[in-house]
């Protein structure tokens, strides 16, 4: 296959795929695509013949036409577990419908990527794309929509011939989904109607660098509607991320309905209507899974739980100490689950038994949190009455062991924040994934201990940083706090996010343990009004690092000059899809090659 890693600057205008594929070459032939372009389906190892598949979709009005038998139906006649789980068919059906919608309804006229005197292609000379062939090359695992990291092969090839035949091949339905996502990025809207590409012929081979590519959204500090979350998941999927981490509870509010413990949301939600019902939670998980995005639910504990005191006051120690809450917690209100309490254990048993079976159809993971536990809070815990690490550490070990045993017994793999391993020195199961946030050294330490790690150094991938303090300072303290920067200022612009290499400081023999990472949207100062622009397109910069790697094919740091017009184009595509992503440049900078460069190649 031809590959063109570095396109000449001018040729790269309007040739933008984000994240950048492993290999990508294209020509300059214009092809149009019509709304009744037929999609053909071929599946099965060794059964591949271009164009020989069955017609499965030829009109936006016929959505679910693909119903192939599941290969993994074995002769034993045993019923499958997790019957609500999605199949590869569900993913492909959804992706075809979305492809159609994106190209024909949610596209944009790319004037910002051409000089002022630019002419659009002329529709009267149109050659049309004749077919889109989707070919699944191999049997795929049954849990294709909720795999553990690395189980599902997301690679794909995409070929668009000059005479208009498109073929996307992959080893899994998720790979087909990723290939269709790339396919949509070849097309532009014409101002007179219709959609075209200027890039035929196209050849792509693509595969992700990291198997865990995610965004974490905190929906406790501020509430986000189901539609806000779904829209964010759509953008996650469009950036070929495959994990959506929902930090769904914290000290400030408990918006998740737990039928077995109804007081949690009845008393703990900000308002009775700001709750994710059982059905809402299911819808959100389904919406992610059907796009090849696994939703990872986090109930952070034992810290970050004080809201539980509103419904179960006996379970929480050091609740809402004022005014010196900062001795007991990272944020007000202070409070932590008691550490040596059978009532807490019973509560957690009930909570997990209610919640986790509702997660397992859609995910293989459950995040038990564990960040920023404040030891002083246990001095006020009547089951412990001590802040001595030597007293607390064995209790924390028991607490986490109990939780993880139950997580496993319900078929899920636990994830914890780095403090549990690195500060509390806990012995964690080999299966446990450790999520890092404080430093690159922490990542190196996690993998040195043989654990799988997720990166997301707050100095690069925290999207909340640089907005200034949300705490109010008394007049006597205000002068010292001026100009009210937050702890992780300055604002992390996309270039900073893009400069982060998840493998920094990780020796080669441990790099396979770095599963990937997540960008984090903590929501003290973000709500539905500014959500989109706080997250996008900056999270897209993290998405490209996670899909394509921080280094280019020559092993050099990726170039902003190469990336910025593509990210600008991705931003236009997100806006066209209804996501309020910020601009990263003015049109002048993208209209005629790189005219906004500062500094010279040496
Ligand atoms: C599978 O499930 C169906 C319906 O729930 C039940 O009738 C059948 O006996 C089950 N088969 C096996 C092998 O368990
Ligand atoms: C675009 O850049 C080229 C090369 O610098 C220049 O010759 C041309 O005049 C520019 N066109 C416009 C419309 O600015
Ligand atoms: C599919 O798997 C084969 C190995 O089984 C691999 O060579 C190929 O790159 C994978 N991806 C695609 C899109 O063919
Ligand atoms: C934990 O609680 C038990 C009683 O439930 C008590 O015997 C034990 O001393 C407590 N441990 C600590 C460290 O306080
Ligand atoms: C974990 O180990 C470090 C280094 O030995 C020690 O400083 C720290 O106090 C330990 N943490 C706990 C909670 O025991
Ligand atoms: C590449 O980026 C890293 C930061 O991730 C930086 O430390 C390093 O100096 C850069 N290398 C070059 C050659 O610019």
From TrEMBL:
<keyword id="KW-0325">Glycoprotein</keyword>
<comment type="similarity">
    <text>Belongs to the glycosyl hydrolase 20 family.</text>
</comment>
<dbReference type="InterPro" id="IPR015883">
    <property type="entry name" value="Glyco_hydro_20_cat"/>
</dbReference>
<dbReference type="InterPro" id="IPR029018">
    <property type="entry name" value="Hex-like_dom2"/>
</dbReference>
<keyword id="KW-0326">Glycosidase</keyword>
<keyword id="KW-0378">Hydrolase</keyword>
<dbReference type="Pfam" id="PF00728">
    <property type="entry name" value="Glyco_hydro_20"/>
</dbReference>
<feature type="signal peptide">
    <location>
        <begin position="1"/>
        <end position="27"/>
    </location>
</feature>
<dbReference type="InterPro" id="IPR029019">
    <property type="entry name" value="HEX_eukaryotic_N"/>
</dbReference>
<protein>
    <recommendedName>
        <fullName>Beta-hexosaminidase</fullName>
        <ecNumber>3.2.1.52</ecNumber>
    </recommendedName>
</protein>
<dbReference type="GO" id="GO:0016020">
    <property type="term" value="C:membrane"/>
</dbReference>
<dbReference type="InterPro" id="IPR025705">
    <property type="entry name" value="Beta_hexosaminidase_sua/sub"/>
</dbReference>
<dbReference type="InterPro" id="IPR017853">
    <property type="entry name" value="GH"/>
</dbReference>
<feature type="active site" description="Proton donor">
    <location>
        <position position="372"/>
    </location>
</feature>
<feature type="domain" description="Beta-hexosaminidase eukaryotic type N-terminal">
    <location>
        <begin position="17"/>
        <end position="186"/>
    </location>
</feature>
<dbReference type="GO" id="GO:0030203">
    <property type="term" value="P:glycosaminoglycan metabolic process"/>
</dbReference>
<dbReference type="GO" id="GO:0005975">
    <property type="term" value="P:carbohydrate metabolic process"/>
</dbReference>
<dbReference type="GO" id="GO:0016231">
    <property type="term" value="F:beta-N-acetylglucosaminidase activity"/>
</dbReference>
<keyword id="KW-0732">Signal</keyword>
<feature type="domain" description="Glycoside hydrolase family 20 catalytic">
    <location>
        <begin position="210"/>
        <end position="549"/>
    </location>
</feature>
<dbReference type="Pfam" id="PF14845">
    <property type="entry name" value="Glycohydro_20b2"/>
</dbReference>
């Amino acid at each position: 296959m031809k590959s063109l890693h570095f396109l000449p600057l001018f040729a790269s205008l309007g040739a933008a795929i984000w994240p950048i594929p492993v290999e990508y070459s294209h020509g300059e032939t214009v092809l149009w695509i019509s709304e009744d372009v037929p999609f053909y389906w071929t599946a099965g190892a060794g059964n591949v013949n271009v164009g020989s598949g069955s017609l499965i979709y030829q009109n936006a009005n016929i959505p679910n036409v693909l119903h192939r038998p599941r290969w993994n139906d074995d002769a034993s006649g045993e019923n499958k577990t997790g019957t609500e789980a999605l199949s590869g068919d569900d993913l492909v059906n959804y992706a075809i419908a979305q492809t159609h919608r994106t190209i024909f309804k949610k596209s944009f006229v790319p004037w910002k990527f051409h000089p002022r005197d630019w002419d659009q292609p002329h529709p009267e000379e149109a050659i049309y794309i004749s077919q889109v062939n989707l070919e699944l090359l191999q049997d795929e695992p049954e849990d294709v929509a909720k795999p553990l990291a690395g189980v599902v092969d997301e690679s794909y090839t995409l070929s668009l011939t000059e005479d208009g035949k498109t073929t996307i091949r992959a080893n899994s339905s998720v790979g087909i989904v990723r290939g269709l996502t790339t396919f949509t990025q070849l097309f532009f809207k014409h101002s007179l109607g219709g959609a075209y590409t200027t890039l035929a012929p196209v050849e792509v081979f693509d595969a992700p660098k990291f198997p865990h590519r995610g965004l974490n959204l905190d929906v406790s500090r501020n509430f986000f509607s189901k539609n806000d979350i779904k829209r964010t998941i759509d953008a996650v999927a469009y950036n070929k991320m495959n994990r959506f981490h929902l930090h769904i509870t914290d000290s400030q509010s408990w918006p998740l309905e737990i039928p077995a413990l109804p007081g949690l949301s009845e008393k703990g939600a900000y308002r009775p209507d700001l709750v994710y019902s059982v059905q809402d939670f299911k819808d959100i998980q389904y919406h992610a899974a059907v796009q090849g995005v696994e939703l990872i639910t986090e109930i952070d504990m034992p810290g970050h739980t004080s809201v539980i005191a509103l419904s179960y006051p006996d379970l929480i120690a050091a609740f809402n100490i004022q005014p010196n809450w900062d001795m007991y917690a990272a944020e007000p209100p202070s409070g932590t689950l008691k550490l040596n309490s059978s009532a807490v254990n019973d509560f957690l048993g009930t909570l997990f038994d209610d919640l986790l079976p509702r997660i397992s159809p859609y995910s293989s993971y459950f995040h038990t949190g564990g960040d920023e536990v404040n030891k002083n809070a246990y001095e006020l815990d009547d089951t412990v009455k001590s802040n001595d690490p030597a007293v607390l550490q064995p209790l924390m070990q028991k607490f986490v062991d109990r939780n993880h045993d139950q997580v496993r017994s319900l078929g899920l793999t636990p994830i914890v924040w780095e403090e549990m391993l690195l500060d509390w020195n806990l012995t964690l199961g080999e299966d446990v994934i450790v999520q890092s946030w404080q430093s690159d050294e922490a990542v190196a330490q996690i993998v040195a201990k043989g654990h799988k790690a997720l990166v997301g150094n707050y100095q690069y991938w925290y999207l909340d940083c640089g907005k200034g303090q949300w705490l109010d300072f008394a007049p006597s303290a205000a002068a010292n706090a001026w100009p009210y920067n937050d702890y992780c200022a300055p604002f992390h612009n996309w270039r900073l996010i893009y400069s982060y290499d998840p493998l920094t400081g990780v020796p080669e023999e441990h790099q396979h343990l770095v599963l990937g990472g997540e960008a984090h949207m903590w929501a003290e100062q973000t709500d539905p009004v500014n959500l989109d622009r706080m997250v996008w397109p900056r999270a897209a910069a993290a998405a490209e690092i996670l899909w394509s790697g921080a280094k280019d094919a020559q092993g050099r740091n990726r170039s902003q000059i190469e990336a910025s017009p593509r990210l600008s184009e991705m931003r236009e595509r997100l806006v066209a899809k209804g996501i309020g992503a910020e601009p990263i440049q003015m049109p002048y900078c993208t209209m005629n090659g790189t005219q906004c460069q500062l500094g010279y190649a040496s």
